[in-house]
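Figure S7 source data.
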Amino acid sequence: MAAQWFTAVVRHTEQIAPDVRSFFLEVPDMERFDFTPGQFITFDLPVGEKRLQRWRSYSLASCPGNNNMFELCIVRARPGLGSRYLFEEVTVGSELKFKGPEGSFVLPPELDRDIVMICTGTGIAPFRSMISDIRHSGRPHRRIHLIFGTRTETDILYRHELEALQSAMPGFTFDIALSRAPDWPGHRGYVHQIYLDTYAHARPDVLFYLCGWSAMVDEAAANLTEKLGYDKGQVRTELFGV
Ligand SMILES: Cc1cc2nc3c(=O)[nH]c(=O)nc-3n(C[C@H](O)[C@H](O)[C@H](O)COP(=O)(O)OP(=O)(O)OC[C@H]3O[C@@H](n4cnc5c(N)ncnc54)[C@H](O)[C@@H]3O)c2cc1C
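Tokens for the predicted flavin-adenine dinucleotide complex:
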């Protein structure tokens, strides 16, 4: 079946880190834009002749509300045809053609296992959606542990929001690993050492969700299953690209 395309209008943008911008979009033709946290939309951007040259997917970073709005969190890739267009050509009022929501990188209906979310950079987007949805809906859950990796302190996304959630949401904790911040008092280096230490003994009551570019996601998936002995069914992945 051919995909159905919609138009979204950019209502607001906000630079949230040196290379990362939040885009707040509205779908005027819909009363309500519904999706499951963890899903993504795909833009058809005017950056190529062929369909696959033009399509770029982005995870929904907001949680579903009773409205026709959604939020994305996008890094300016270099050279990066699609993100260059979004950062340099798109402004408030711009219209963007999109399809979706799509994707099966979603939480199970019952949160009866601990959830460990591992991400780098804008890979945090689907997790922000999932965590805010749990918080707003009041769904019962067990431990939720977010492990976020980026380069320097200014690249930390949603820092104040995560700190506020950690105080307000029982069972939610987060760790930040910075790879290029020698003076950072927290974890220095990549995300890997954190889950290797914390989840060293494989157990059946935990699910791992990994999101970001393949360098991190592939290594983490291999570490969890091959080094630590978790079952493949306990590890779910969303790959942003190679
Ligand atoms: C399901 C899905 C969800 C996605 N969600 C998001 C999202 O929420 N936010 C977001 O910013 N991107 C997301 N992406 C990636 C996005 O679709 C584009 O690939 C990205 O914006 C780069 O496109 P571009 O046209 O700017 O770069 P291109 O010209 O297509 O290529 C740039 C190259 O650099 C790589 N690359 C780009 N950025 C990085 C980076 N930071 N680290 C390592 N390699 C990188 C790309 O994989 C590619 O090889 C998602 C991708 C998928 C498949």
